[in-house]
Amino acid sequence: MTNAMRAILLLMVLVLAACGYHLRGSNLSDVQFAFKSLYLKAPGETPFVVDLRHTLKTNKINLAATPDTADLVLEIVSEHTVKQILSLSGAGRVQEFQLFYNVSLRAYDNQQNDWLPPEEISLSRIMTYDDTQVLAKEQEETLLYKDMRSDAVGQAVRRLYRAKPQL
Description:
The chain is an alpha/beta fold. The protein has helices at about 5-20, 45-60, 135-160; strands at about 35-40, 60-65, 70-90, 95-110, 115-130. It is flat, with a radius of gyration of 21 Å.
């Protein structure tokens, strides 16, 4: 690639960035939810629940202290992770793992009308493995689970945005 081509490519990227281009739906500050307050019902204070609570507060959703005072109850039914062996080497050593992260949730109002029927957010990642880099691979696994958790939080908020009472 010549220097002139690189300069043109760089100029195009700068023009695209300067024009205010952004993905549709990426700015959640302009989003209006169909409810005013939300009660987050969760089995425990997991990292997912902490991240979700923080994201909801960031999006200016009023978190109610009790389900009776909330317009909507978001129930985290379950959350679990699974690690499966994906492939083995000829010597019988693990070469790849597949990591799964699943969150099941539902949303309903005080009259028990479903706004979001029971749904599951399922995410997976593939991770290579090497016995000589055990510590690095453990850190990589932790980062992959953290990435999946933040993706699940984003999906949960987007589902809340489209939540409407089902009649």
